[in-house]
Amino acid sequence: xxxxxxxxxxxxxxxxxxxxxxxxxxxxxxxxxxxxxxxxxxxxxxxxxxxxxxxxxxxxxxxxxxxxxxxxxxxxxxxxxxxxxxxxxxxxxxxxxxxxxxxxxxxxxxxxxxxxxxxxxxxxxxxxxxxxxxxxxxxxxxxxxxxxxxxxxxxxxxxxxxxxxxxxxxxxxxxxxxxxxxxxxxxxxxxxxxxxxxxxxxxxxxxxxxxxxxxxxxxxxxxxxxxxxxxxxxxxxxxxxxxxxxxxxxxxxxxxxxxxxxxxxxxxxxxxxxxxxxxxxxxxxxxxxxxxxxxxxxxxxxxxxxxxxxxxxxxxxxxxxxxxxxxxxxxxxxxxxxxxxxxxxxxxxxxxxxxxxxxxxxxxxxxxxxxxxxxxxxxxxxxxxxxx
Length: 388
What we know:
By secondary structure, the protein is an alpha/beta fold.
């Protein structure tokens, strides 16, 4: 097979993927309900909510995040922060804020039992102290608009959902990091189709650590966080757990209501995603290889092909690139993404592939993963983590 035939085949393959995929993404751009648009009817009784927040070495963002939680315009609310073996000023900040506001309860964890990863255990322990009819699990770096929870609960009550999760607005600095955040988001859209989660007949699911609001009775019937005790991607698998148990679920766009800084630099981003990229592939080497080849051929090579090919292959590569950038800009516009962000897609997708491969190689080399200073054996993660 000569080089021209190979180029022609690859170009047709890329265009054949991106034309229907791009149209599909653009048609579903408004498929998620926007949290900010949810109407709130004053006077309606609201169920009690317990907010559970895990915190391990969160001194950088903790105070700002907790201030936003404590100023939520929601009645009948308690806030439980679990100080998970922190070695920085997290404990001091929590003590100061708890003295100032009696609605804040601090639970301290000094040791981690076997068969648990730190964050799921902290969430599980925090939930043991919760008295609310609903529990909102969130992270220690999430900033809420004052009406975010009221609107989220209004959506739950209006549609009788058991679980509602919210995709937060990313506030990462710089053009590249913002584009990476959107790139990560578009792949999550393609893989998980979150707008289908509300359909009880669909197997699609979603869970986001920034905002997992669940009926307490459903949470306890599922076994709390114990089924995802050894999942680095516990928030995502939490959503799967909800659907597997037959409970109803929906996913909302949290732009303007729920905000996360996520990461401040490329180095932080790489370190932060290393823990769960291999887990997301269920620790399968074959899945990582397949995903890497697919990304290189369908998402990165078309950009190169536009310059190195000629004739019809070049034209088909151009079609693939235009559809890639166009659908990216249209589909992610509800999250504040511009078309110009799509011009960095070959770089952000390349970085995503690098993190995915590096995550696999290091996990295999080390025999496990290191997360927040704790080592977890790969053997244990692969066997006991299957419950999630």
